[in-house]
Design brief:
This protein is an alpha+beta fold. The chain is built from four helices and four strands.
């Protein structure tokens, strides 16, 4: 589906395509947060931009991605909307983040609608964010915070007494 620069961005950020995901998909800017990367990857599926999807997956997983399957999924699917449910970390000062989302879609062949509800993990490898694909070998392990770790927000408090409660 072709978008004009002034159309609303498919990621439903409330911005125009040119002021949002187009900047990332055309490599004019890098997403500063895990949520921005999540939104831009959704838009990349919407726009069938396989190169962007591959290039924003963790570098250790990129050689194992099946470009043909990604292209087929993008072509067979009409992306209807994106809901961001929750973001945990994933800010410019963090090394990892999680984004829970629901992507609504319709299969073009059957007109059957569905939703993809996922809690995606992202890691920051200077200078950019990457998606960690849980279905791709090799599996990338990112140390997630436990209750007693120091919170990543910089408060100096334990995670359980800080952001875990929110």
């Amino acid at each position: 589906m072709s978008l004009s620069r002034n159309d609303p961005c498919p990621c439903q950020s409330g911005h125009t395509y040119q002021d949002c995901c187009l900047l990332y998909l055309h490599n004019e800017q890098m997403p500063a947060t895990a949520e921005q990367l999540m939104r831009s990857r959704y838009t990349a599926y919407h726009q069938q931009n396989v190169d962007y999807l591959v290039n924003t997956t963790h570098p250790d997983q990129q050689p194992f991605l099946n470009r043909h399957e990604i292209q087929q999924w993008a072509q067979q699917t009409e992306w209807l909307g994106l809901e961001i449910i929750h973001c945990l970390f994933g800010l410019p000062t963090h090394t990892y983040g999680e984004v829970e989302f629901i992507a609504h879609y319709r299969l073009k062949s059957s007109q059957q609608t569905g939703k993809l509800h996922e809690n995606s993990t992202f890691c920051f490898i200077d200078p950019k964010w990457y998606y960690i694909d849980p279905h791709t070998t090799p599996s990338i392990k990112v140390k997630k915070l436990t209750r007693n770790d120091v919170c990543l927000c910089g408060s100096g408090k334990k995670y359980k007494k800080c952001c875990m409660r929110s």
